[in-house]
Specification:
Layout (H helix, E strand, L loop, with lengths): L6 H25 L6 H19 L6 H27 L6 H22 L3 H24 L8 H23 L14 H36 L11 H18 L3 E8 L2 H8 L1 H17 L6 E6 L2 E7 L3 H17 L1 E4 L3 E4 L2 E7 L8 H16 L5 E2 L6 H10 L3
Parallel strand pairs: 6-7
Antiparallel strand pairs: 1-3, 1-6, 2-3, 4-5
Helix pairs in contact: 1-2, 1-7, 2-3, 2-7, 3-4, 3-5, 4-5, 5-6, 6-7, 9-10, 12-13
C-alpha cells in the first residue's frame, strides 16, 4: 500500500521525529547533567510535535486549538531549541528574550485575528512564515556572534541550518502573495508540505549537532584528564613533554630562548613517615599552588613524579630562570603550612636551572642539565638554586657522583 505524503502524513512524521528526539534529549540530559540547555531543547521538540498533532486534527477539534494554539506551540518550540542551544554553548544574545517573547505574542495575535476576525488562510501562512523565519534568524545570529562556533563543524552546520530554514520561510512568505488562497490549509500546496520537511530538518540537524558538540566536549575533557595530575591539578609528564616539543621547535626556528627548572621538596619522605600520606598529599598540593601562583600565565608547571616538579619558561634564559627559581625558593621557605590543629610545617625546596642552547639536538638535553643542577643543589645542602652551565656541567656531575658515599 503506497503512502500518500499529504500534509497530515508529513505532520505525523514530524510529530514522531519530535517525540523521539525530544524524549531522547530528556534522557541524555538526565545522564549528562553537566550539559545545560539540552532539556530545554527537548521541551522545544515536544512542543513542535504537539503543535503538529493539533495541526493534523484540523476540522476535528476547535479552530482556536488547531490553528492558534498549534502554530504558537510550534514557534515556542523553535524558540526553545535555539535558546537551549545558546545555553549549551554559553551564548548570550542581547535582547533575545524580549525579541522571542514578542515573536510568540505577535504570532498568537495574528493567528487569532486571521482565524476569527479576518479569516484568510494566506494571511495565516504569511504570518507564520515571517515569524518562523525571524526565529531562525535569531538562532543564526547567536551562533554567528559566537566565535567558537566558526571553528567547529557542528557550529557551522547549525548556522547553515538556521539560515537555510529562514531563507525557505522568507521565500514561502513572498510566494504566498502570488498564489491563489487555498480554501483549506490541509490542501495549501507543496510549499506547506515543504514547510513540514523544513521542520523535520530543523529537529534532526539541531539534535545531531548538539550530541556532536557534547561528544567533542567530553572527548576534550578526557584528553585534558589524561594530561592532568589528579593530585595537584598540574600538568603531568606527558603534557609537559608535549609543551616542550612545541617550545623546542619554536626555539630551533627563531632562536628564542627557554629555560627549564626542576625542583623538589627537601626531606619530603620525613613528612610522609611522620604525619602520613594524607598530610604529604596536602603538602604537595600546597607546593603546587605556590608554583602556579608565582609564574606567568604562559609558563608551564608540571608534576614530574613524587615530590619532584618541573617548569618550562618560554622566552627566558638561565639568568632569568635563576631569578624565577630564587623567588619560588624563597616563597616556599617563607610559607608555613598548617593542616588541621596538629600539623604546622615549614618546608624548603631545591631548584636546578638550565636553558636551551643552539647546540642541543633535543629538548631533553635541557631537562638533563636541569636535573643535574637539581642534584647539585641537593648535594650542596638543599634549599638553594643551582645552575651548572652548559659546557662544564657533565664534568661537575661526574665529580659529584664519584664523591657520593
Amino acid at each position: 500500500m503506497a503512502i500518500q505524503l499529504d500534509f497530515r502524513t508529513l505532520s505525523l512524521t514530524l510529530m514522531l521525529f519530535s517525540l523521539v528526539f525530544g524524549l531522547g534529549m530528556f534522557a541524555y540530559s538526565r545522564e549528562h547533567a553537566k550539559f545545560s540547555g539540552i532539556r530545554t531543547m527537548g521541551a522545544g521538540y515536544l512542543l513542535i510535535g504537539g503543535g503538529c498533532v493539533l495541526l493534523g486534527l484540523r476540522h476535528f477539534i476547535y479552530d482556536f486549538v488547531s490553528i492558534v494554539l498549534a502554530n504558537t506551540a510550534i514557534i515556542i518550540g523553535v524558540v526553545l531549541i535555539y535558546r537551549g542551544l545558546f545555553r549549551f554553548r554559553g551564548i548570550s544574545l542581547r535582547h533575545e528574550r524580549w525579541l522571542s517573547t514578542t515573536l510568540v505574542l505577535v504570532l498568537a495575535a495574528l493567528m487569532y485575528v486571521y482565524t476569527f476576525h479576518i479569516p484568510d488562510v494566506n494571511l495565516r501562512i504569511q504570518a507564520f512564515s515571517i515569524v518562523f523565519a525571524a526565529a531562525c534568524l535569531i538562532g543564526a545570529t547567536g551562533f554567528l556572534r559566537h566565535r567558537e562556533s566558526h571553528n567547529r563543524m557542528a557550529g557551522k552546520m547549525l548556522i547553515a541550518m538556521f539560515l537555510l530554514v529562514s531563507a525557505f520561510f522568507i521565500f514561502r512568505f513572498f510566494r504566498s502573495f502570488y498564489e491563489v488562497p487555498p480554501e483549506d490549509f490541509m490542501n495549501a500546496g507543496w510549499l506547506s508540505a515543504l514547510a513540514i520537511v523544513a521542520g523535520e530538518f530543523l529537529v534532526i540537524l539541531s539534535s545531531f549537532c548538539t550530541i556532536w558538540m557534547a561528544s567533542d566536549e567530553l572527548q576534550d575533557e578526557l584528553s585534558e584528564i589524561a594530561r592532568i595530575d589528579p593530585l595537584t591539578g598540574l600538568y603531568n609528564r606527558r603534557a609537559f613533554d608535549e609543551c616542550c616539543d612545541i617550545e623546542f621547535s619554536r626555539a630551533q626556528r627563531s632562536g628564542a630562548p627557554f629555560a627549564i627548572i626542576m625542583c623538589d621538596l627537601d626531606h619530603f619522605k620525613r613528612v610522609n613517615d611522620r604525619y602520613g600520606h594524607h598530610v604529604g598529599d596536602e603538602v604537595l598540593r600546597r607546593f603546587a599552588n605556590t608554583l602556579k601562583e608565582h609564574i606567568r600565565k604562559h609558563d608551564v608547571v608540571a608534576r614530574f613524579g613524587g615530590e619532584e616538579f618541573v617548569l618550562l619558561l618560554p622566552g627566558k634564559d638561565t639568568e632569568q630562570g635563576l631569578e624565577v627559581a630564587e623567588k619560588l625558593r624563597a616563597k616556599t621557605a617563607d610559607t608555613q603550612i598548617t593542616i588541621g590543629d596538629d600539623v604546622c610545617l615549614t618546608l624548603s625546596a631545591s631548584f636546578g636551572v638550565a636553558h636551551y642552547d643552539s647546540s642541543d639536538r633535543e629538548w631533553s638535553a635541557v631537562l638533563h642539565r636541569a636535573d643535574n643542577a637539581l642534584y647539585a643543589a641537593k648535594k650542596q645542602g638543599r634549599n638553594r638554586v643551582v645552575d651548572l652551565g652548559t659546557e662544564n656541567q657533565s664534568v661537575q656531575a661526574e665529580q659529584m657522583l664519584s664523591t657520593q658515599p
